[in-house]
């Protein structure tokens, strides 16, 4: 058995109180980092929400005529035809697909945290383009650029949070993705509905730039993902990052698991354990880094003077011994052992582990988010809510969409409380089963009435969606896919999510024009099929290390 390694305050050396970091509890550091990353995700929801009601309220879209006024260099309204507005709204998803397609490559090349920082620069550029738009093309270009940023964020944010979250609280932190989307949708729509005069809509559409500025300023102060640093062969930095994230816990076992999640071709498990023993025995040499990293080490010494490592039953190794000892980083041939698998290799099973079954589960869960019919509920420009309420009041449909988003927040908070207690399968089965019933009720109401039953079923359907089907797919990828294929899996799943968003956006209006009453019958069939697939094939991942899935 290898010696235990701790991250503790210098004055706190009571070894009996330390636990395995895989059982680490609540951490303010991880929470604040997750909240900071969530600002990127709020931008996704905000960008969708602001245009949900803007056709009739923000821009008052019509050709510029004598009655239109200008404010300085920027017109109060931009001339759009109906088709041009449809393109401007839908191009966000096209940009999202392109962004998701390159998200894995970016995060593997410059790191998860740095990818988010760079991506926020792109989001800021898109926000400025929309806020200063004077023509339809100008506005559409801004939507496209911010769409790319949304696509990158959808892939990188989940990967980063999934790799820094402790195993015991993985579901809790992973659920912040959907919470952030709903918050962005809710407040984006509210802001759009109240920005009716002059050029106030410009501030609303450009507001994600504020989130970007906050992240550009604060994200570099957070640690990089330890698993990414291991993949990139930055062993000392990975060690420091893990100790920062798990202060007060035994990190030796989690460190070894991180190594085993890499695609280790030439090193067997016993060799990994042997080198881990050597690293643990000389753990006090955290400050003994290569010469070219000395500047970083000096900075770490200043900021983390209280951070050290102890080995239970052994006295700390002094600096002279530590400097002359061989550490894990120097012994293990990491350069030859680690390998990053691409999308095609993973799909073909050409990886250390055959991941095709797990990849199929992740893809199905991600695609089901769009095939469940949520877009037809949420977006008032085309959907069941508009068809029922627009005859009575043009503003009633947008306000109902706002209320639907607001009432879904209790479902998400309930999921936050239950996801690491009930498990992923239970929440997915309950969510998809509830949505299937709601789709039946909506269809029955559309066929036979009354409309009140349809509206009640709409609220219940979105509530059920946010109890599992809208939350679990975003973080389960990092729970079942090892580090060597995680970027490839995230790229594929997020890209397919955006592709299905485009497809549903094109198909729903078509079906509504031909057989509107049957729309939710189709969605009900998809959710029922998803229920059966989860029951038969999706594994439980709660408190389960990747090496045991």
Structure overview:
This protein has helices at 28-50, 82-110, 112-131, 136-164, 170-174, 176-194, 200-206, 208-218, 226-231, 235-245, 252-260, 269-281, 294-303, 319-324, 328-331, 334-337, 343-347, 356-371, 374-378, 384-389, 396-422, 424-448, 451-469, 472-480, 483-514, 519-537; strands spanning 70-71, 74-75. It has 549 residues and is mostly helical. It has a two-stranded antiparallel sheet with strand order 1-2. A hairpin with a 2-residue loop joins strand 1 and strand 2 (74-75). Helix 2 (82-110) packs parallel to helix 4 (136-164), helix 18 (356-371) runs antiparallel to helix 24 (472-480) and helix 22 (424-448) packs antiparallel against helix 26 (519-537). The chain is globular, with a radius of gyration of 25 Å. It starts with 27 loop residues before the first helix and ends in a 12-residue tail after the last helix. Residues 1-16, 61-71 and 264-338 have low confidence and may be disordered.
Sequence of strands across the biggest β-sheet? 1-2
Structural class computed from helices and strand pairing: mainly alpha
SSE string: HEEHHHHHHHHHHHHHHHHHHHHHHHHH
Helical content (DSSP H or I, runs of 4+) = 55-70%
Query: How is the biggest beta sheet arranged?
Result: 2 strands, antiparallel
Radius of gyration: 25 Å
Number of strands: 2
Q: Mind sketching the topology for me?
A:
Blueprint: H1 28-50, E1 70-71, E2 74-75, H2 82-110, H3 112-131, H4 136-164, H5 170-174, H6 176-194, H7 200-206, H8 208-218, H9 226-231, H10 235-245, H11 252-260, H12 269-281, H13 294-303, H14 319-324, H15 328-331, H16 334-337, H17 343-347, H18 356-371, H19 374-378, H20 384-389, H21 396-422, H22 424-448, H23 451-469, H24 472-480, H25 483-514, H26 519-537
Antiparallel strand pairs: 1-2
């Amino acid at each position: 058995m290898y010696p235990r390694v701790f991250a503790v305050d210098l004055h706190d050396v009571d070894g009996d109180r330390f636990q395995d970091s895989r059982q680490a509890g609540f951490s303010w550091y991880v929470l604040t980092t997750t909240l900071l990353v969530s600002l990127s995700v709020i931008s996704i929801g905000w960008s969708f929400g602001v245009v949900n009601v803007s056709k009739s309220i923000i821009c008052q879209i019509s050709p510029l005529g004598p009655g239109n006024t200008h404010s300085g260099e920027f017109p109060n309204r931009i001339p759009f035809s109906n088709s041009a507005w449809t393109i401007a709204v839908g191009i966000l998803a096209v940009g999202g697909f392109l962004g998701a397609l390159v998200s894995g490559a970016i995060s593997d090349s410059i790191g998860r945290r740095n990818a988010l920082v760079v991506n926020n620069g792109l989001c800021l550029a898109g926000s400025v383009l929309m806020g200063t738009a004077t023509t339809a093309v100008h506005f559409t270009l801004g939507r496209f650029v911010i769409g790319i940023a949304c696509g990158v964020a959808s892939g990188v944010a989940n990967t980063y949070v999934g790799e820094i979250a402790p195993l015991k609280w993985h579901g809790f932190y992973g659920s912040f993705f959907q919470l952030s989307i709903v918050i962005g949708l809710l407040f984006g729509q509210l802001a759009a509905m109240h920005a009716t005069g002059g050029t106030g809509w410009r501030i609303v559409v450009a507001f994600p730039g504020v989130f970007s500025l906050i992240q550009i300023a604060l994200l570099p102060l957070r640690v990089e993902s330890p698993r990414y640093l291991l993949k990139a062969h930055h062993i000392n930095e990975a060690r420091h990052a893990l100790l920062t994230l798990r202060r007060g816990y035994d990190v030796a076992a989690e460190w070894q698991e991180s190594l085993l999640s890499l695609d280790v071709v030439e090193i067997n498990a016993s060799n990994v354990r042997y080198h881990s023993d050597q690293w643990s025995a000389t753990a006090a040499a955290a400050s003994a880094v290569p010469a070219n990293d000395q500047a970083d080490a000096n900075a770490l010494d200043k900021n983390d003077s209280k951070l050290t490592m102890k080995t239970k039953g052994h006295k700390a190794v002094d600096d002279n011994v530590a400097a002359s000892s061989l550490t894990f980083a120097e012994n293990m041939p990491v350069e030859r052992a680690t390998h990053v698998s691409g999308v095609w290799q993973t799909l073909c099973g050409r990886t250390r582990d055959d991941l095709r079954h797990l990849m199929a589960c992740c893809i199905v869960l991600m695609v089901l988010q769009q095939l469940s019919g949520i877009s037809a509920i949420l977006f008032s420009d085309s959907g069941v809510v508009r068809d029922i309420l627009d005859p009575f009041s043009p503003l009633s449909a947008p306000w109902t969409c706002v209320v639907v988003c607001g009432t879904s927040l209790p479902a998400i908070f309930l999921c936050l409380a239950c996801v690491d207690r009930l498990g992923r399968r239970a929440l997915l089965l309950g969510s998809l089963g509830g949505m299937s019933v709601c789709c039946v009720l909506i269809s029955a109401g559309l066929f036979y009435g009354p409309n009140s039953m349809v509206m009640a079923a709409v609220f219940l359907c979105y509530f059920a969606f946010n109890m599992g089907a809208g939350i679990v797919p975003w973080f389960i990828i990092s729970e079942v896919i090892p580090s060597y294929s995680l970027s490839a899996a995230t790229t594929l799943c997020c890209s397919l999510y955006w592709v299905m968003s485009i497809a549903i956006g094109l198909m729903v209006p078509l079906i509504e024009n031909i057989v509107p009453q049957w729309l939710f019958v189709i969605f009900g069939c998809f959710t029922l099929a998803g229920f059966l697939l989860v029951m038969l094939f999706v594994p439980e991942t709660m408190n389960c290390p990747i090496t045991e899935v």
